[in-house]
Amino acid sequence: MVYVILSRFSPEAFRNPKDFKKLAEEVSGKIKSECPGVRWRESYATMGRFDVVDIVESDDPKQIERAAMIIRGSGHSTTETLAATGWQDFLSML
Question: What would the pLDDT profile of 37-64 be if each residue is shown by its tens digit?
């Protein structure tokens, strides 16, 4: 199953943009070790309502929930997680 994790940083997340690289590495490492069933497809920095859009896959929704909690706790962020269906798969269900 594919999921989209939308994240928005809190003002306390980092003081200096250079600090963000270290924070991102820490969060990524924690997710890799604690959520082995989550496969990262892509991540995008955005300039809208959310700061980051992550596209991930997992057969276990609990692992996705855990990854989102790690982002929230370690990354000082708010998240919104959406289950996603590929467009062609969606159309074939109609």
Answer: 999 999 999 999 999 999 999 999 999 9
At residue 49's C-alpha, the angle toward residues 45 and 53, to 5°, is 35
Residue 17: both structure tokens together? 């943009």
Residue 8: other Cβ atoms inside 10 A: 15
**Which CATH architecture group holds 2-93?**
2-Layer Sandwich (3.30)
Q: Domain boundaries in the chain?
A: 2-93
Q: What is the pTM of this model?
A: 0.89
CB proximity list for 37: less than 8 A, separation 6 or greater: 58, 59, 60, 63
